[in-house]
Every structure is written in C-alpha cells, then in structure tokens.
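User: Structure please.
Assistant: Input sequence and predicted structure:
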Amino acid sequence: MPWDRPGSWDGATFGVYRALVALRREVPELRHGGLRWVYADDDALVYLRESPSGAVLALARRASGAPVRLTGLVAPPDAAAPALDNLYGGAPPLRPEADGTLTLPAAGPTFQLWRL
C-alpha cells in the first residue's frame, strides 16, 4: 500500500485494510493475545491468538489446497454445542466433528478468523 501517495490507492485494497484494522480493535485476542502456531505447509498457515478472555483461530492461505484437519483444539461437541462463529473472511461457521476435529476450508487465497 503506497501510504505516502493517497491518490494512487486501490479502493478495494484500502477497504480490506480498514476492515482488518476494525477487526483488530473489536477482538481483544488480536491485540493482547499470545500466538501459538498450529499448522504450516507451503500454502497455508494456521495459528491461535489466545488470551484470558478467549481465543481465535486464524487460517491464512495463499492458494487452494487440501482441507486442514485439526484435533485437540476444542472438546468433542454435545448436541447443544454451538458452531464456531466466523469473525472475518466469510467462511461458514466451523462445526467440530464427533471427536472434536475441526476441518478448515480448502479454498484460497483467503484469510479466515473464527472465535473458539
């Protein structure tokens, strides 16, 4: 982003930056949380931002690939367990499988954020 040349800004890119700044302001874990890497390959990174107030799960993909399956992050759901809300990126809520496994989307490029 050419911050020193506002006349050359791409409006769509600037809109994404504004949305991400607003998200950081709204989600305490993004400002004060610790970082824990959960998964990495050539095209995808998954990490947690955790704080005493809660945790968020982030998926950053530079290209489409196989879905990422994670175990051990959430307890196996009971019948009343809610899905994990997507906070950014537009992916559907995550629904843990019976054993607690989470399957993250395979589409990319993307950045997705869910509240755990």
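The first strand starts at residue 34 and ends at 40.
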